Structure formats: structure tokens, C-alpha cells
């Protein structure tokens, strides 16, 4: 055990941690409870299964913090980014993938690596010895969650996450809907037509909104509270916050022109994004939901173009958990009470596939260095990965700590940058240029480390 790093969880963070360790020449054992012990949200026993969306969001590494995170991960040899590129789907400026093919290839790469072993078992208690990375994600099993609570002496925070439905493409009425990415974004025609758009008039929007609000919803168990993460709200919860909320969120009509009636501006637009390489499946963007199944089909078929929609998967809701990282973890993501235990991924309070994978990548590098008797320099807070690390290990206020996507608000301000909307493009470019230089500088001491493949 002293010669290996053990990882609990084979999600985005777990596979990135394992890959980083193996690239550094360190043996890894992944403990993954699926498929022997399943969850309501997962469908397969593959590693890095994409449960909610099939998108890694923006791939713009000059103007977007998520795109910058992609860039940093690629520079560090990320497995997730390599496989995402291999199975990329048209999605305008976003990085979307064929989720099943992506997970299958990640699983194949992990299982075929000579330094990585996968043990299919559920770990129910926090290990007392050895070097471990806890990357169990938001669906940490109840027994392990209880063990974490006992060790930390702190209650885990909880919020609820919802899954968007997936529609069969051939059931969408393309005499009503049309293909277009917002603002025609993309370098190819395929990218510029990556989304299917369903337009609504004001009257249709109001009727849809009423039905959405009145629909029967999933109820929570006694003692549970719905502390939703703002970045992944159920569509009906957004609707409850005001009748215009959806029109300024997932149903915003800006940057789109109805190909069937270009002279009429839609009042609201529902977008669907391609979900597989064949183009046979599309997910309804931003429509995570806690509605009951019968209500979902009734309400979503009110969307123009989806009147006869067939659903490959309906939406769902599940409880997510994360630790109060600012009070529990040190600067190297180790549990202060048990320094042999590192946490990585969504359980630390970062939100999203990319952020989770990035924290796994970093945890793996840190663990491998520790096992080899080395100490890595501090990760610059000016980088996307460093900004996330700083947020979860002390940058956030522990009392109000909530899951966070990467964003430029987490970065140290630029010494000289123009404020306001007019200066935003130059300011964002300043953030990304600085981050790339600093990340390259941080990686350089390890440039000689070769992958053990």
C-alpha cells in the first residue's frame, strides 16, 4: 500500500487523478463501487460517466475561464480533455461530446494502463493508513458519507442537482424548429448549426410557464432541504423566481433568427443540443427538472416543435453532497485531521465536469509527488486551476461556502485593466494570457517527467 496511491471513485476527478499519478510513474488503485453498487443517476459501469449534461461548456481559452481551464488541463496531459477531443460533437463554441463513446474510451484507457488497477468494490469507511484520494463526487454513498462526517466533525452541506431530459431527434418537428448556434458561433457550418431551436410567442411562453409551475413535482424525504446550486437549478425553480427569469436564462431569444419566419422575433427560445455522434439524441439545454415523469412529457410537449417528442431519458433529481473544504482541507487538498487523505472533485465544492476533473488532475500530481518524497511549488492563484484550489482551501468564506464554477471573479485582479463592459474583452484576455504563462511556468519543473505507458 505504501507504494501506491489509492483513489475512491472512478468519476471525472478519479480518472484524472489516476492518470496524473501513472504519468508520474506511480502505481494507482481505483476503488469504484459501480457496477456492483449502482446509483439512481448512473446507467452504466463505465468510468467518467457523464450523468447530467454532455457538455464541458465553453472551449474559448482567451475570453472564458472554463476554456482557459481546458487549456491548462491539456497542457498538463489531461485524459479527459484528450478523450473529449476524440469524441467531440458540434456545439458552437462549446466542447460537447458523445457521452457513451467518451466514457467507454476513458474506461479502456484506464483499464489498459499497466500502472492502474481498478477494483470494483464499495469503500464504506475512511481508510486509516496509506495515501488516498477521496473522489467520490456528489453521489457519495451514505455509509462513506457518514464516515467522513465522523472524521471531520462537521456536517456535510447538501444541495439538489437535476438532470435534463433527452429527446430523439427524429421526433422533433423541423418545420417548426430550426438549426442554429447562438450568434452563428462556430468555425464550420456544422458548428454554426449545432443547436435545434424551438420558438415561442409571448402567449405560448405564458401558457407554458403556467403549466410548468402547476406541474406535479418530486417531493423530498423528511429532514431534507432543497438548497439548490444556482448553476444547475431545476427549470421550474427558475420559473418560480419570476416570470421573466427563463427568458433571461435558458430560454433567451437573443442571437437567434427563426429560419422559417425570419421577420418575426421569437419571444423565447428552447434550445436542444446534440447528445451523441450519430445526431439521433438531443438534450434540452438548461431544462434540469424535478417534475414527475408524467408531468414532464405533458409540459415539454407544449414546446413548439416538441408536440410529438419521444424521450430517450426523462429528467430526474438527486441529492448532492460536498464538504466544507475551506475549514477541512490544507493548501494541498489534504484533510487536516488525516493528512494521508486528499479530497478531489465535486465533493470539495467545485461544480461541473471540468472543474471536478481539474481538481482530480491536481490531486493526482500532488499525491504522486508526495509518494516520491517531493514537494511541488504552490500552484499560482493566477491560473484557473490555482484559482479553484484557492477557493476551496481558504479563498471562500467557510460560513457561506457553496459549490462554485470556475470564473474570472476567483482570479487576482490585473494590475492594470479597464473596468466595465467595454474593457471586458481586454481584461479577460489579460487574465488568460497571464494564466497561461504562469501555468506553463508551474509545469516546467516537471517537464522531464515521462509518462509510464
UniProtKB/TrEMBL annotation:
Keywords: Cytoplasm, FAD, Flavoprotein, Methyltransferase, NAD, NADP, Transferase, tRNA processing
Residues reported in the UniProt entry to bind FAD: 9-14
Keyword hit for DNA-binding: no
Domain MnmG N-terminal, first and last residues per copy: 5-374
Source domain of life: Bacteria
GO BP annotations, alphabetical order: tRNA methylation; tRNA wobble uridine modification
Main location: cytoplasm
Cofactor entry: FAD
E.C. number(s) listed in UniProt: 2.1.1.74
GO-annotated cellular components: cytosol
InterPro entries: FAD/NAD-bd_sf, MnmG-rel, MnmG_N, TrmFO
Catalytic activity: uridine(54) in tRNA + (6R)-5,10-methylene-5,6,7,8-tetrahydrofolate + NADPH + H(+) = 5-methyluridine(54) in tRNA + (6S)-5,6,7,8-tetrahydrofolate + NADP(+); uridine(54) in tRNA + (6R)-5,10-methylene-5,6,7,8-tetrahydrofolate + NADH + H(+) = 5-methyluridine(54) in tRNA + (6S)-5,6,7,8-tetrahydrofolate + NAD(+)
GO terms assigned for molecular function: flavin adenine dinucleotide binding; tRNA (uracil(54)-C5)-methyltransferase activity, 5,10-methylenetetrahydrofolate-dependent
Class of enzymatic activity (EC top level): transferase
Compartment(s): Cytoplasm
A Pfam match: GIDA
Entry's family note: Belongs to the MnmG family. TrmFO subfamily.
Role: Catalyzes the folate-dependent formation of 5-methyl-uridine at position 54 (M-5-U54) in all tRNAs.
Name listed for the protein in its UniProt record: Methylenetetrahydrofolate--tRNA-(uracil-5-)-methyltransferase TrmFO
Annotated organism of origin: Rubellimicrobium rubrum
Amino acid at each position: 500500500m505504501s507504494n501506491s496511491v489509492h483513489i475512491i471513485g472512478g468519476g471525472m476527478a478519479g480518472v484524472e487523478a489516476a492518470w496524473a499519478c501513472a504519468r508520474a510513474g506511480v502505481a494507482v488503485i481505483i476503488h469504484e463501487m459501480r457496477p456492483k453498487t449502482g446509483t439512481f443517476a448512473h446507467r452504466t459501469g463505465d468510468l467518467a460517466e457523464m450523468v447530467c449534461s454532455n457538455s464541458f461548456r465553453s472551449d474559448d481559452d482567451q475570453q472564458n475561464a472554463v476554456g482557459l481551464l481546458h487549456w491548462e488541463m491539456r497542457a498538463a496531459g489531461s485524459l479527459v480533455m484528450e478523450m473529449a477531443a476524440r469524441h467531440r460533437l458540434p456545439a458552437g463554441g462549446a466542447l460537447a461530446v458523445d457521452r457513451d463513446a467518451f466514457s467507454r474510451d476513458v474506461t479502456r484507457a484506464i483499464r489498459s494502463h499497466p500502472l492502474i488497477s481498478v477494483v470494483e468494490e464499495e469503500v464504506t469507511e475512511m481508510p486509516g493508513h496509506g495515501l488516498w484520494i477521496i473522489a467520490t463526487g456528489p453521489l457519495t454513498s451514505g455509509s462513506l458519507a457518514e464516515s467522513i462526517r465522523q472524521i471531520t466533525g462537521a456536517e456535510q452541506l447538501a444541495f439538489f442537482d437535476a438532470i435534463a431530459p433527452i429527446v430523439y431527434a427524429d421526433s422533433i418537428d423541423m418545420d417548426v424548429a430550426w438549426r442554429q448556434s447562438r450568434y452563428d458561433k462556430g468555425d464550420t457550418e456544422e458548428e454554426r448549426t449545432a443547436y435545434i431551436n424551438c420558438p415561442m410567442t409571448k402567449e405560448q411562453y405564458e401558457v407554458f410557464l403556467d403549466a410548468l409551475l402547476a406541474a406535479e413535482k418530486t417531493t423530498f424525504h423528511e429532514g431534507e432541504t432543497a438548497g439548490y446550486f444556482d448553476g444547475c437549478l431545476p427549470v421550474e425553480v427558475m420559473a418560480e423566481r419570476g416570470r421573466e427569469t427563463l427568458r433571461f436564462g435558458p430560454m433567451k431569444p437573443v442571437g437567434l433568427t427563426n429560419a422559417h419566419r425570419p421577420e418575426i422575433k421569437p419571444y423565447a427560445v428552447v434550445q436542444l443540443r446534440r447528445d451523441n455522434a450519430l445526431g439521433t439524441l438531443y438534450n434540452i439545454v438548461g431544462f434540469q427538472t424535478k417534475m414527475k415523469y408524467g408531468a414532464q412529457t405533458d409540459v415539454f410537449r407544449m414546446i413548439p416543435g416538441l408536440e410529438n417528442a419521444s424521450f430517450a431519458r426523462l429528467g430526474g433529481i438527486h441529492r448532492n453532497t460536498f464538504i466544507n473544504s475551506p475549514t477541512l482541507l490544507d493548501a494541498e487538498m489534504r484533510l487536516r485531521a488525516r493528512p494521508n487523505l486528499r479530497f478531489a472533485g465535486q465533493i470539495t465544492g467545485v461544480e461541473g465536469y471540468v472543474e471536478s476533473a481539474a481538481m482530480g488532475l491536481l490531486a493526482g500530481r500532488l499525491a504522486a509527488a508526495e509518494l516520491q518524497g517531493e514537494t511541488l511549488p504552490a500552484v499560482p492563484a493566477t491560473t484557473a486551476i490555482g484559482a479553484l484550489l484557492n477557493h476551496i482551501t481558504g479563498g471562500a468564506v467557510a460560513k457561506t461556502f457553496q459549490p462554485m464554477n470556475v470564473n474570472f471573479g476567483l482570479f487576482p485582479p490585473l494590475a492594470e485593466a479597464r473596468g466595465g463592459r467595454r474593457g471586458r474583452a481586454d481584461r479577460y484576455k489579460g487574465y488568460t494570457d497571464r494564466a497561461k504563462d504562469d501555468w506553463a511556468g508551474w509545469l516546467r519543473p516537471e517537464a522531464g517527467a515521462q509518462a509510464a505507458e
